[in-house]
Structures are given as structure tokens and as C-alpha cells.
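Could you help me review a protein record that somebody else here produced? This is what I was given.
***
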Amino acid sequence: MSLNNRRVPWLVFNTNLYFIPSLWLIPSFQTELSKLFPQKETVFHHLARYLIHPTNQVWGMITRSYNAYLSRADERLGIQVRVFSMPDGYFQHVMSQILACTQREKLLPQVFASEPQFVTITSRSPKLKAVLVTSLYPEYSEKLRSMYWEGPSSTGDIIQVYQPSQEMYQQTDKKLHDQKALAEIYLLSLTDHIVTSDSSTFGYVAQGLGGLRPWILYKPKNHTAPDPPCVRAVSMEPCFLRAPLYGCQAKKVKTTPFVKYCEDRITGLKLVDPADHRLL
């Protein structure tokens, strides 16, 4: 059914996909959208901050966790781990990939295998780095915590690892489970740097709320950590995971200077700012 948009003042519908990038591919919408959002990669950031209002109970979870574990840190790193394989759970190759990404990108320091024989005295005081891990499973944060407890970091910095919950499996539409998820999304958005999992809407919302350009962990293949382990996103915008697959756009979606294919989904689309984007 074809609708004349000039005769329809409001159109209300429900979806579980972030489809905003597709609207920028409609020529008649582009002028008005450009007026509303001069910086195109901030669309979700502004919409989410205006429209998502957690309840007092969720804000309580956020503020208690932030004050207890994140507020005193000199630097905060968020690591969001979502495993889509079946069965899911803890995998050593995913842990290896997380370490390879965070240490290669200087987000976390290396760990000495043993205590150094000589201690170099410097004028710089050790930094406290808080690492917030969100995952259904506790093993990823436990491995990180043990690693930085058993051996000193190469920089002398103190690494504190915290995971708010370990639900073990996704409990769709269970109120308390969903409240914990939203609280953890907000906590991730309050970090200075963020590492997210491939094609995860959980990570997308966190990066958008926080205005953060994440490092995205590539999806492992054949239970092997990929090389390179991660890529820096070109914008803070979420990916439209399922770009149009029907009609005249079925074969190839024509991108624009401000709508590009996603780093973690070859058929997905995301908004970028032309002045800043790098070709994918």
C-alpha cells in the first residue's frame, strides 16, 4: 500500500530494528533530516537521551554500581561480551581475542609473568583503571581479574575488574533481568572507552548513549580468535543489521557519503559523518 506522506502527519509502529539509516536513503527525507541532525552520527545519541528514561529502580542500580566501582577510577574501560554460537558460554578463544584486542589497542596493559627484579622509580603515580565487564557468564571477568591479581601490569597501573551480574542465560521479558540489562547498558555508556561484540544491539545502545566510538570484536570462526581481533568503528551509530532485502533494493543497496556498510555486518548499514569517515 502506498501512502502519501503529506497526508499522514504521524505514523506509529513497532520494530526491534534500528532502521534510521534507511530513512537517509530516501531523497525526499534528506533535507529535513539534515536540518534535524547536522552531525549524522549523533542521531541515535540524541534520540536515546531524549526518549529513554530508566525507572528509579534502574537508576538506583546504575548509581550504586558507578559510585562503588567506577567513580574513583582514573580511566574506565567497558567490555561487552556476547557469544552467539550454540551452545554459548565461556570460550577460551573469545577470552584470547579480548586480550589481543585490548592489549594491542593499548586499552589494557600487558602482565608480567613474575614480579620484576628491579623496580624503576618514576614521578608518575600508578593509575587506577576500572574495567566493567558485561556478560551472561562470569568466567570472562574472573579470568581478567585473576590475571591482573596474579601478576603486575607492565605499566604499574592498578587494574580493577567488575561485573555487575552473571545471569547465565537470556531471560526475555523477565522484568528484573531486563532492568539489570538496561542498567549495565547505561554503565557501559559511562566508560571512557568501550569494546563491544560483533552485531550486538546491547553494545550498540551502550556506545550510542555514551557517544563512544567502540572497538568491535570480530565474530570468531571455527572456534578460533580472528586476526586482527577487532576494528575501531567509524562512528558511534548503531548498525541497521537487516538492510532492505526486498523489491528493487534486493541485490545491492546504494550507499551515500553518510550511509556506509557496517564494520561487523557486511549487509548492514550505519550513519557516518562524511568529513570523518573512512572507507569500509
About this structure: The radius of gyration is 21 Å. The chain has two domains: 55-112+126-233, 237-280.
